[in-house]
Design goal:
About 40% of the residues lie in helices and about 20% in strands. It contains 15 helices and twelve strands. Helix 2 packs across helix 13, helix 6 packs across helix 7 and helix 7 packs parallel to helix 10. Bound molecules: adenosine-5'-triphosphate and magnesium ion (MG).
């Protein structure tokens, strides 16, 4: 059988590039199946979870989606200040103490069309500790919110409420900076979340040391193991793309070695004084200065989370197909993004009879992409070109039939 023809990747940033129709389709799909939930967590305080989650929410709303931003920093809430809203009269506390019937009743408008806020209660410490039943009710109500996306801004640390909200999301985003203390806490968060997940799947209490963690993951049932295959989407804040890639490689390595899990770099966000200006003025960065470096990085992150491997709905993969002449043979070279859970790009070379004579698969976190500072939207093209160059320069030894 000949090679599958894959749609070429869209030009532009990230793996997106969809036009208005793509946006509408995604909105329709989200409405039909309930909202997609993205949770932003991370071990350390002050690394940028609130800045990033609130601005991703703003970007998604500006892209035409109905978004509810939830201040999940129970007991330390301040998103209303960041968004420049009046202090909402109703907050999550009213939901927990049953003053309102539904979570949707505490969602208040923000200054951004299509974006509403479920505020936390920064002063009422009681709300920091909902009991188990209240937490389950909150998760049920989040799933039923009449919107396309729910973004949860989580507090720092790894308490059970934070972890359970993180694990209830469709996409878990972990935010870190490149500082060693932040990296330590970042890995601690990934590890604790993984152990909590195993605990939820198996009902067995966690153990703290790493070897125990890996064994526990390995001995979880197939269903639990499949759930654990969800790659953590890592955002490295206040970092250059090269530094972010180094951090992601390190985390991927640690997660693979100690937990059997995967970490993929979703985006790097530049250290940008425009962020400070936006907080001082109580205006979201993506509204106040949409062309600032950090705002553009956040735009790329929103698109990556929307279309990237962690959330990509089953559909046509993006790829490149090309016919080339090589040593008197006509070859078909096909490159594609394998998406989750493989998190890799693959190039295959086919003979005219459809047989595969060469395959190269490169993980997103490979040094090849890091060295060339290749972003997610360009991986397939770079991989494709590199393989063809290698073929032409004789660096691919032989083209024997492998399948
Ligand atoms: N990309 C950036 N460039 C410059 N400054 C930034 C950037 N990201 C965050 N900051 C600064 O870091 C501060 C803390 O950010 P933020 O409140 O989002 O952290 P957090 O992780 O939510 O903290 P907490 O755990 O306390 O909730 C911001 O007030 C801002 O001044
Ligand atoms: Mg915060």
């Amino acid at each position: 059988m000949g090679p599958r023809v894959i749609a070429p990747p869209q030009s532009g940033s990230g793996s997106s590039g969809q036009g208005a129709k793509g946006t509408r389709d995604a909105v329709d799909q989200a409405s039909a199946t309930g909202p997609r939930i993205w949770a932003f967590g991370g071990g350390k305080g002050g690394v940028g979870k609130s800045v990033i989650s609130s601005n991703v929410a703003v970007r998604m709303a500006l892209l035409g989606h109905r978004v509810v931003l939830v201040d999940g920093d129970l007991g330390g809430a301040n998103l209303d200040t960041m968004l420049g809203c009046e202090r909402p009269r109703r907050t999550l506390s009213h939901f927990f103490d049953r003053s309102v019937a539904s979570l949707a009743d505490v969602a208040v408008p923000t200054g951004v069309d299509r974006l509403t806020l479920v505020a936390g209660d920064g002063e009422c410490l009681g709300s920091a500790n909902p009991v188990h039943a209240q937490k389950l009710k909150l998760i049920r109500h989040l799933r039923a919110l009449p919107c396309d996306f729910v973004m949860i801004d989580l507090g720092a640390g790894t308490n059970f409420n934070t972890l359970d909200l993180y694990l209830a999301a469709d996409v878990g985003v972990v935010v870190t900076t490149g500082e060693p203390t932040s990296l330590q806490n970042c890995f601690a968060f990934i590890k604790t979340a993984t152990m909590r997940h195993v605990e939820q799947c198996t009902g067995v209490q966690r153990r703290e040391h790493d070897e125990g963690a890996r064994r526990r993951v390995g001995s979880a049932g197939p269903e639990a193991r499949a759930a654990l295959q969800r790659a953590t989407s890592l955002v490295v804040n206040r970092a250059s793309p090269a530094e972010a890639r180094r951090v992601a490689n390190l985390m991927h390595d640690l997660a693979g070695r100690f937990l059997g899990g995967q970490v993929r770099l979703a985006a790097s966000i530049a250290d940008d004084v425009a962020v400070t200006r936006s907080i001082r003025q109580s205006q979201p960065l993506c509204v106040l200065e949409p062309t600032a470096r950090a705002a553009m990085d956040i735009d790329a992150l929103a698109r990556e989370l929307w279309h990237g491997p962690a959330v990509a709905p089953a559909g046509p993969a993006s790829g490149v197909n090309e016919e080339i002449e090589h040593e008197g043979q006509r070859l078909h070279v096909q490159s594609e993004d394998l998406g989750a859970p493989q998190c890799a790009v693959r190039t295959q070379v086919f003979l005219a009879d459809g047989s595969v004579v060469f395959t190269r698969r490169t993980p997103y976190v490979d040094a090849f992409f890091e060295r060339l500072a290749v972003g997610p939207g360009d991986r397939v093209r770079f991989h494709h070109v590199a393989i063809i160059r290698a073929l032409r320069s004789g660096r691919v030894e032989s083209l024997r039939k492998t399948a």
